[in-house]
Automatic annotation (TrEMBL):
CDD domains: AKR_AKR5G1-3. The active site is at 54 (proton donor). The keyword Oxidoreductase applies. GO terms for molecular function: oxidoreductase activity. This is Aldo/keto reductase. Residues 31-267 form the NADP-dependent oxidoreductase domain. It comes from Paenibacillus hemerocallicola. Belongs to the aldo/keto reductase family.
Length: 280
């Protein structure tokens, strides 16, 4: 099990990916973003997750460059993820989108590049592009986001390279049991976005009771629950004290009974769009 903030899991191609990282969804370009990225790296985070559609790759790149210089780290010490947006899900357009993301980030390569949403009739062409980038050694790992089991099954029919990661909405109200089982059986690593349900779980009484027992916050309990399920997690925060607090989850362990109680909160409730029914 993960023992510290820089613990990694080996993706099915052998690439090590940190279990824990910083998400920057809805954080606008500017000093707040740059400082959040820098604070996370300063406090030991080694994984940063962004996406083309977030419109903040330039600031993320700036934060990374400044943090590397200030902390005596090199590029290889970090794991950086971005995602290709729906409007770029053709073969040539996905290749071009990758170059655009690299340019904005100011990086030579990404550690992980994901298809952001399973747009019907488009994701297979995009996947071919990601396979090309991967085979050419331009990206360390490739994967998908928001893919349900049937999307994965469809992709795997024609894929030459199996996705290494599937990043999905995952939290105690949406435990994704079947999807977690399927990805595990395929050797695809599940990763949680919106692990704290955009703050909607932070006054949940069951989680509060478990948190009190461990003298931890509800956020820490949820993030620990992710890790004990073998799910990579990338909580978003721009506040330095939260960035530190979120990562302080390696000095306690949830019992199986507590894990089961948290699992039982599931209502299949989403805060984000439904991957089977979205129109963007």
């Amino acid at each position: 099990m993960t023992r510290h903030l820089q613990s990694t899991t080996a993706l099915h191609n052998g690439v090590p990916m940190p279990w824990f990282g910083l998400g920057v969804f809805k954080v606008e370009e500017g000093s707040e973003l740059v400082e959040a990225v820098k604070a996370s790296i300063r406090h030991g985070y080694r994984s940063i997750d962004t996406a083309a559609i977030y419109g903040n790759e330039t600031g993320v790149g700036q934060g990374i460059r400044e943090a590397l210089a200030e902390n005596g780290l090199s590029r290889k010490d970090l794991f950086v993820t971005s995602k290709v947006w729906n409007s770029d899900l053709g073969y040539e357009s996905a290749l071009a989108a990758y170059e655009t993301s690299l340019t904005k980030l100011g990086l030579d390569y990404l550690d992980l590049y994901l298809i952001h949403w399973p747009v019907a009739g488009k994701y297979k062409e995009a996947w071919r592009a990601l396979e090309t980038l991967y085979k050419e050694g331009r990206v360390k790992a490739i994967g998908v986001s928001n893919f349900q089991i049937h999307h994965l099954e469809d992709l795997l029919k024609d894929a030459a390279v199996k996705p290494m990661v599937n990043q999905v909405e995952f939290h105690p109200m949406l435990t994704q049991k079947e999807l977690l089982g399927f990805t595990r059986s395929q050797g695809i690593q599940l990763e949680a976005w919106s692990p704290l349900m955009q703050g909607q779980l932070l006054d949940n009484p069951v989680l509060g009771e478990i948190a009190d027992k461990h003298s931890k916050s509800i956020a820490q309990v949820i993030l620990r629950w992710d890790l004990q399920h073998g799910v990579i997690t990338i909580p978003k925060s721009t506040k330095e004290h939260r960035i530190i607090e979120n990562a302080a989850i390696y000095d306690f362990e949830l019992t199986q009974a507590e894990m089961d109680r948290i699992d039982s909160l599931n209502e299949n409730r989403r805060v984000g769009p439904d991957p089977d029914n979205f129109d963007f």
